[in-house]
Amino acid sequence: MGATYRITHRTEYRYSARVAPSYSLLHLLPRDAPGQRCLEAAITVDPAPEDQGEHRDFFGNRVAYVAVTAPHRALTVTATSVVEVDGGRGPASLSLFGQQTWEEARDHRDVEAVHYALDSPRVEADAAFADYAAPSFTPGRQLVEAVTDLSSRIHADFTFAPGETKVDTPLTEVLETRQGVCQDFAHLGIACLRSLGLPARYVSGYLETDPPPGRPKLTGADVSHAWFSVLFPGAGWLDLDPTNDQVVGDRHIVTAYGRDYSDVAPLSGVMYTRGRTTRLKVEVDVVALTPA
Amino acid sequence: MDSPVITTPPSAYAPPGGRYDEMLDAATRAPREHWGDLADAFEGLGTDELLRRRDEAARLLDQDGVVYNAYGAPSHSWSLDPLPTVIASREWQAIESAVIERAELLNLILDDLYGERDLLRRGLIPPEIVFGHAGFLRACDGVRTGGPDTQQLFSYAADLGRDADGGWCVLADRTQAPSGFGYALENRTVTSRVLPSLYRGANVHRLAPFFRALRAGLQAAAPPGVEDPRIVVLTPGPWNETAFEHAVLSSTLGYPLVEGSDLVVRPDGVFMGSLGALEPVHVILRRVDGWYCDPLELKPDSQLGVAGLVEATRRGAVSVVNPLGSSVLENPALLSFLPRLGEHLLGRTPRMASVPTWWCGEDQARAEVLHRLDELVLRPVSRGAGPASVLGWELSAAERDELRAKITRHPAMWVGQEPLALATTPTLGTHGLEARRSVLRTYAVARRDSYTVMSGGLTRVAPPGDDGRGRISNQAGAISKDTWVLTSEPERQTGFWLETGPAVEGLDPMASLPARAAENLWWLGRYAERAESTVRLLRTVHDRRNEFQGGDPASEAALRVLLGALTDVTATTPGFSDPARLADPGPELHALLVDEHRPGTVAHAVRALLQCAYAVRDQLSGDTWLVVGALDRQILELRRRTGAGAPETQATLQRLMQGLLALGGLGEESMVRDLGWRFLDAGRRLERAIQLLALLRATITTTRDVAADSLVLESTLTAAESIITYRRRYRSRAQLETALELLLLDEHNPRSLAYQLGRLMEDLAALPPTAGQRLRADQRLVLETSTALALTDPATMVGDSEGAASRPALDALLGDLHAQLLAAADELDREHFTRRLPQHTLGWTGTDGEA
Fold first, then answer.
1. Domains, chain A, with CATH or none
2. Do B297 and B139 touch, CB atoms closer than 8 A?
3. pTM for this structure?
């Protein structure tokens, strides 16, 4: 069944010296997507920005542009949104993706498919990823089966280890050390699919983590989350969360799509200062307004 | 050099068979009709005379300071063959319409790629070659430049070559920031000067209309509703390979030359940080690669860009030309699809073909390319860090296998191209005319509904010793030529900046000087003066050394004082405070002249002043480069020399002094008294004042016996360029009081402290005020210094020290004045040169428990 969530994502920076000016791009406003609708969304910035705008990027994501001109030693960005998820996603939806084999999907090369099958800044295809994926992608296997198997294997083979990888840790190293965080697992899934010639993309978003009675607490509580998505020609994108071994369902909230993390970083920016960042604090709250 | 070179006459020119030659018809071995007059003229002049003209051309280019900086190598002079290549009028018409057609086609493609991408959906362009191209900037998706009618591809260049049959074809398209039209202009200027009668007689199309079209095009590219757009030229900086051209464009077109750090994005658009104010900018002629133009949305670590520039273009507040992302068209794979794109977009196949190109993303084409790997030129679709092309026949078997594997792995990212048997054109070699392969770069700029093509272009020929198969590029040492497009009748002479219509109001002179340019001019003034005064002091020391050698104790003592002064004034301690160096001063004196890595030396100051001059190239008059070029060569010369012969040193000092004096003269005589000049002059005055004070403190605040003191005083006056005046005025005998009168207080002595302070106050008064204050801090400090000086009586200061070993009161006074002026310099820096703070990437917020 559907649900409505209120998401609060607050980021605070502190600097050792005056910053003036700073410019940021925010991928914090959830987009509409199959199975979800963003009912309201707003961003507040402290200190008050001289300039704030919003546009749609190449991928159709909502991007906020923020320029703070006044000298500041701290910057706080708070994004608040209300998102309605209609219950159309999840394991039950798998049947909608049909029975095509992964080879059929691979050989269907329209513009979108080509775009997402190419290398991107953080994900380069490599034989090592194809080798890892091979047991899941046996000849003639249905793509639905193959890709859910891949996601489950990543979950089983890799250790969730916060702090062990950084945003710029090479993906080949993740494959070798068998550990990482959700972003690494999403990238890994994408790398495997692209190395086989399949179009795949990165999804950033959130996960509701209050455990219903009798069910285990899911990893990724109260933080932003990420997973991967694979294109089924004619049927659309199927989202899989390898970190939690799940088909993305109505407890996931999508913020933005991209080729990889670099297209959809929640906050990125440039600042001018003689100092450095001394503190970075992120707080995320996902609250169900109506129960799932 | 000593043995005479045997030359052959121009008529002996004999191009090899199998290729088209521009001048000679292969069948008749006679010059083609449109070359007839020129061939006769070459013969009439003779090879030796042509070689002389070539030297003359090199000298003229050198005077104009024309350089091309190849990355990773010292800048070298632009090399120009004085013999133009000639294209007949009718043939040019065909080229011109082909270039216009191609620019129009590329414009439509560009518009589509950042808009509907209909060409991709229809399968007319494989998506891989767009999405996999580093020049495709997703951040710029949907951004359109100017108004609804504005052409998106603003300027375009085509590299053209002729095949063996004499037919023209396009070798490559330049759409990022086509370079070379500034060099084409320079080549025309120089060629017409070294072959004046030939040029006058030849009815050559002028280049001026192109530059007029460029100006008009820039005006028209402005955001809708902007009546009198402010236009700037954005450069990566003075060390870029084509920095010369950026400065030429800026000064020829009359638009400020700016770097990314000079611009800032605000809610209502882009602004130039000018002294005391932000000036709006509406059109940016971009010479920085697109990817580097915005650290916020494009390349996070780029220091050459402007944060927020993409957003400003998205809002339509500024027009960047060529638009960010235009380099996606510099795509060799596109060449093989242009015929069908022409059919679709223009209703016809483009009339000029491209070099035969196979895109390896197609199976058949890939098979062909892999089969002929040793015969083809291989080019990556997207030029990353690697080379733009690989010549298949130059590869070893192992390298070929490696390349084959690369292509097989990413076939869509490679093309193979047929090497052309390029046409040759007569080029002056050491012994006579040689047939060298040539390529022609032509230029087009957008006008309302189409494009204007430059009637001419940049011809480049292969370097000497060419095997007929290597590359022809500036990096590979190509030589350039002027390109003469003949007209049927003489053209009206028109200056390209002359415009009809209502007079345009002159810009506020304060508005067009970027703060960075002001800072460079200030330091140019300071370093020029520092170099000059150090040369003077070194020269005085050398003279004294020659006179005193083996002399009496007084002379020895005086020399010691002067050597000590040299160390103090140049702040190069330990220097001559080290007894070993004092005992054998030669090496240290030599180092003070030539060691450019050591602050305080002449070479260091000259190198620094040259850097400042190159950074503000657009602000300085053309003659400046005569002088700057000479100084640059002298510094190179110094670097080469290791020995330290005295007579040679004296000659070097003389030559440097000539250059520095000429530079000073230009500042006085050839610069408008605008803000830029004020900074230059203020720098010079302040530096001269502090150099003088340092010199006096190091020489006359201590005393020795009368004989030694009198020698020291004489040398001090010499070093301060006041000895002649002093002798004339006080001919009886030297006295410290009168010397101080002349050096400190005499407002009519252009070398005195009082004179410097007077000029400095005038300069500072002309600079932008600080809001709400009558005097700025820098002005107040100079005024206080000046007042303190005016209240000084030199007689009392000197008089009380009769018989003492030092003059503490004088020393204290000079020290105070010196300190106050340094403080004034700091204040001036703080008030006017507001620099952008260091740029950093905002820390990222991670996922999964990063908090």
1. 3-85+265-290 (2.60.40.2250), 91-262 (3.10.620.30)
2. yes
3. 0.86
